[in-house]
Amino acid sequence: MTTNPLAHRPRLVSKRRPRPTARKLNCWDLKKCGRGPGSEPTCPAATDVQADGINGGLNGGRVCWAIAGTLCGGRQQGTYAVKLETCLRCDFCQMVLREEQAEACEGHILPRRRR
Question: Is the CB of residue 66 less than 8 Å from the CB of residue 51?
């Protein structure tokens, strides 16, 4: 009978608890467009439940650049491909990308650049 040499070792259990995620700012909060959930007309970013939770937002509120037909800038926008260039210059989009990059890198030591 062979025994498992690792059977006597205690099982490692992480004692780190997940951090509670605070509600992050959605596009309609920053832009103050009045087209968030429950408003009329409601923007597709506010009603896109498939994007709920992405980047810590409510519905599509933190990925509005990826949702077709958003009501940004006072008019209906086009598809992702059509509006991406404009969206990447948006202050909200840039803010989300910075926040998410910083969060992804949190706790990691980045390698030093070689000179």
Answer: yes
Domain definitions of the chain by residue range: 27-102
**Digit-coded pLDDT (tens) for 8-50:** 544 444 444 444 556 799 999 999 999 999 988 899 999 999 9
User: What is the secondary structure of 4-47 as a DSSP string?
Assistant: -TTTTSPPP---PPPPPPPPPPPHHHHHT-S-STT-SSPPHHHH
CA quadruple 94, 33, 69, 40: dihedral positive or negative? positive
CA atoms within 13 A on the CB side of 105: 9
> What is the DSSP-derived secondary structure letter of residue 76?
-
The residues near 87 (Cβ < 8 Å, ≥ 6 apart) are 64, 65, 72, 93
Q: What is the pLDDT of residues 71-96, one digit of tens each?
A: 988 888 999 889 989 999 999 999 99
